[in-house]
Sequence to fold (948 residues):
Amino acid sequence: MRNDELREQLDERLKQIENNEWSGIDHMQKKDYVFAAICVAVGIAILILGAFIF
Amino acid sequence: MNRTNEEMEKEAYCGILPVTDKERTYHFIDALLVLSGYCIATWSYTQGAYLATLVGFRQLLIGAFAGALVMLLIYQLPVILSTRYGIDIWIWLRSVFGTKGVKAIAVLIIVINFPWYAVCCDLFASSMSNLATIFGVTLPAGSHLALGLFCVLLGTVLAYRGLRTITLATRILVPALLVVGVIVVIVGFTSVPVSAIWSYTPKNNPEHSLVPYILSVEANFAFVITLVGGMAEVPRLCKSEKAGYFAGVLGQGLAGSFFVVVGAVMAIAMQYVTGEMVEDPTVMMATLSVPALGLTSLLLVGFANVGTQAVGSYLYGVVLKSTFKKLSYRTLVLLLGAYVALLCIWGKIVEYFGAFLTISACVYAPLAALLFVDFFMVRRQKLDLRSAYECKGHSNYCYTQGFNLVGLICLAAGCAMSLLVYNPVSGEIHNHILFYLTPTGFAFIGTGLLYGLLCMLPPVRRYVRKDSCVNPDTTPFDRDRVPPKQNLLAMPFLWLYCFLETCGAHLKINKTGKREIKPPYLLLGTHHSFMDFLVTPLAIFPHRANYISELEGFEYYGEWAYRQIGCLGTRKFVDDLALVKNICRVTKRGGILAMYPEARYANVGTSSELPRSVAKLVKLLHVPVVTLNMHGNYLQSPIWNLKKRKQVRLHADMTYALTEDEIRSLSIDEIYDRISKLLSYDEYQWQREQHMRLTDSDRAEGIEMPLYQCRHCGAKYRMHTSGSTLSCQICHTSWDMDEFGTMHETNGTGIIYIPDWYEWEREQVNRAIENETYGIDTIVRISALPNAKNFIDCGQGHLTHDTEGFALTFCDYGEQQPRTMTWVPSSMISLHTEYNYRGQGQCITLSTLDNTYFLYPTDKDFSATEIQFAVEYLNKLSDRKRTDTRRTISSERR
Fold:
């Protein structure tokens, strides 16, 4: 792809992003972040408990 | 699919174009399989065998899964950006390291990461050699290298052919490998008693020592964080952020860790059977499993290395493509293949692998931390994509010649943090307390904190967040917040700083009044320059005070620091009731409230007319009033040329102006007159009286800002200064500023005092208003300051000013349609002006209660001083009109 074509394509895609036109992408929801945070907390707890298993 | 579409797709998948929502091909399962294929390499077995030398099987199990998942769940979060915009994290990292800095870091990451792939090729060669031996075939000398290069070739060809081939290969390979893994576990557990594996503890493990366990967790952290450089290539092809994120987490955290455990099981079983812990999976398979099953498994494991090589080449090919956009993806894949081939030919990669690993482990954690903090805290999930892609006219990520020094310093500091805790070469623990966090964990937390805290410092924030227009903080400043007293701990430093700054100018403070001045009281000061804020604390020493300050000072020095030194934020020339409430709070709690009622630095060293509301405030507060009339501050650093003049001496007259009884008995007009008298000044007159010569050769430079109109021909905006000379570019008349600030006509005998010239200009504006010939109609660049956090670029707008006041038409941030805001003359007693605000030239500001708009002219025929004169006169006319109306109404009533 030529440079000018690539630049044109890039510009078009950036415009689409700026105008929020990519409706097909599902965003992370608050519950997903909460789930990840819970997993991290549980993981850390397990790691700490693991220190006492010999 | 036509050629253009094919090329476009190639540029998206293997290049830098953001992948559109329609081009996304990956669901969760596809992404999981590809990433699992990448993670299921023979290095997993090596890692498992290494962990088995440190801890027992149960701790190994916990560390492998929980350790890996915890780290992955945290550091992989920024991949949601890659899914959202279809871009690689290396595009984002341009904001963290700068457009050139990112290239250096990408190359560094690849240089230290690719030895992993050389190890894969080496293991592939070993697998094939073992297979040949099992079949009784003796391979010739040099076949090991040839097999290694064959692995490089296969992996490179798969990566070269692109994403579809890789996807297809992993769809076949990964499920087969997972089955092999299950078989291996079964083989392991059936070759030896289950209890031998379950109860396994390493021989050299000191009892109840946490060190081996922490080392095993560290090994898992370091193991999974190595993917950070290439973590976004697959998620950016996913249809949902959740799929991209969890595929990355589970691909490595479950599939990868499962094979680590498989490796550990095999290693433990080998030790049980042969007495020796072998980490080569091919040897383990050949020894422990039944021949047919073992051979099949061995073949698959061997080819897993090819899959890893292919996916790795693809991931890092795209990484390189994101940073070196002019090179084609295929060229980069070939270059990567050549690099791995060279490492294989060198043949000592396994021997020096520890050194590579040491360097890489130190770099990955800080890199991941910088990305995490930048993504969530500094830039709050929004990137200036056009600057990241270096589009023409967008250069927010150029920083210092293409390098973001803050990001690079934090990266280096993070590496140092890791090494300060633990030396991975010698195994020496330098800090036992921090070691509990693991070196990788500490480097991750430390780098993140350092970067986050640095970015909270206003100068650093302004440097790093040049893209703040993309994601500005629009929360209005909290005007109602109760102002804290000046921080006691900060006071000695503040006084010392003030003393050091003023001692060179031999500051003398003359205190006069009926008695010793003690708080609470209201301190009213003249306002010449920033030096006023340094003289005042010394004048009221040893007491503390609260100061009224314009919000831009909060933005410049940081809100927290400004509040600690007792500042109350407000906006100029607005009716701010919250400010009045806070002023009352300060005096009621027995404090000193310091304010500069002129609300603007003196343009030419003469006092401005005070607002009558000051006298009303005095009545309202009912606390004694002290005035502080400072001299020399303007002369030392006038607003039109902030360069400090060292010959200036400072002086301040502090006067007990009004007692409580006087405030009770005097009328508002009488209070106003007394304060006005005590706060009146003419700095040039004072200079002449003091015989203070200012011999700086450039003493007139900048004075064309307040003296914008030629006194000879009346031409506006064409005055020019050089050295001590002010000249008109139209009539070429020039004046020389003498050492006492008086202007002498160069080719004549006339002299003129600067304040007289200034007042003459004011008369011209007043006359123009009376003759209805005054009017401003110009295009301005607008920068909004809603809070103490950031300025927001609002683009250009149209500003008019006439007898009806100001009208500003523009698109406010977050709005699509332009709107017109108006300020009527009666609402503004004056106007805030700047002559060179932060190096951006002249500007005026217009404020509402929750926003201040800094307006920079695009036309050079503009004078902020002229508009200020007009605002002041129009306000007076408005007052007169209002008074006349009142009189008419009252006379009609009579």
Remarks:
- The longest helix of chain B spans residues 241-274.
- Chain B is about 50% helix and 10% strand.
